[in-house]
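Page 37, top half.
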Amino acid sequence: MLTKEQITELQNKLGYSFGNADLLKRALMHSSYVPGTGGDNERMEFLGDAVLELCVSEELFFRFPNMQEGQLSKNRASIVCESALSEAAKGVGLGKYLLLGRGEDASGGREKPSILSDAFEAVIAAIYLDGGFAPARSFIHRFVLPLLDLSTPVSEKDHKTRLQELIHARTHGRQVRYVLVGEEGPDHSKTFTMQAVLDEQVLGEGKGHSKQSAGQAAAEDALSRLETK
């Protein structure tokens, strides 16, 4: 289990002090840690996902007043995704505090995007249950939205979606992942370099002032290569 010192350390990183620290512990508890007991973070992940979608929907609704419903949904889907949430989780060092079974821990579970993103959503739920909507919304604005390039709405079918559809058609369901391979510049004006990777093959590479836009550029580069084949 986590020590009191670790709980305090994580709360400082999250910028939120829990009245009921057991909620935070539950949010960090992967199913491999308590197999078959129902005491893991999966129910909290479900709730956190709903709170996150509401906050992102609100942001898009007010930021793009002329955008139609279908396009709003596409933009939200590009934001509330595993890659963005795992990056947010890494930003607060969440992997260090996860409660994992020995096997999952030994196999690199603390770095797995799926585990990190699920735990991050569970942490959102923990904050919501402990303090209500306002602190949960503040947390999302602080740790999720800065990772996103919301200055320009996603196109009718963004490059990542088009790339995944192409790969799905050619490989019967394999998933493209996006890997950060470099960043440079001062904190207020960083340039990120991302690669679109299928298994161990680099499909494309791109740069941007957010990880999201760099990922889109990498997908666009991959599409330019693959669609000519």
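Page 37, bottom half:
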Amino acid sequence: MKQKKDALWIFSVVSVAIISIPIILILAYGLAIYHDQQGYGITVMMAIALTLFTSILSAVLVFVIFTPLAYELSSRVHRGMETIADIPASIPHPIVGIAILILGSPFTPTGKFLESIGIDFFDTIQGMILALAFVSAPIYIRSMQSAFSSRNIFPDLLSQSLGASRIRTLYGAVLPGMIRQVLSSVLTSMSRAMSEFGSIAIVAYYVTQYPFNGVSAASVLIYQYYGYFGPGVAITASAVMIIVSLAVLAVARLAGGSRHAGDQA
């Protein structure tokens, strides 16, 4: 049935336009008008590669650590846990970077321990991954919490009636039937990690490890280009990064497509 284009539809179109127009302008100016060759250079490609690499690993880390929390929050009411889980999304992200530096500082007990086992967060890939995981975790937790809450809980009840623990139920009975939802949530978390600037600008302004020695994340490099060369190169590099980000978002939407179709059935 054809949907009626009412006032709500008009407001929705305007809202989408407000979001879309700046993105379209960056793509148009970056790819067609300015089209600065430096914006396609090896430095930009290495920055995007570093961003993708660390964002993928941070998304995997978020999945491993925070899936049980999302399941718990969907099963029981935990106001305190929910509030704490939302903290990374509600504080300025440079604070996250500073917190990670304190965590790894050799002047703190945690830093001394990490140093003793050879872990350093400053200007390292692991520091960047930790920062990205921290800031993207709330998005993953909320997405998976919603997915867990909206499904049929029969597999949970059946598994636990057979004597399985809740953690075994999660990994043995629940997650195998939610592959698309998990993939969608992981990719959405990855997309958020790709956009991060504030925390990694402090923790890892550039990386000092092979094969990314001297490479900055894409967001940091674009900021550098804007300061050094003006808007031309920065806009071209931004357009390239937007294309990569849109590709990841498109895959995330396709991965979650069957869930939405099922909701509408």
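Margin note: Residues 42-75 form the longest helix (34 residues).
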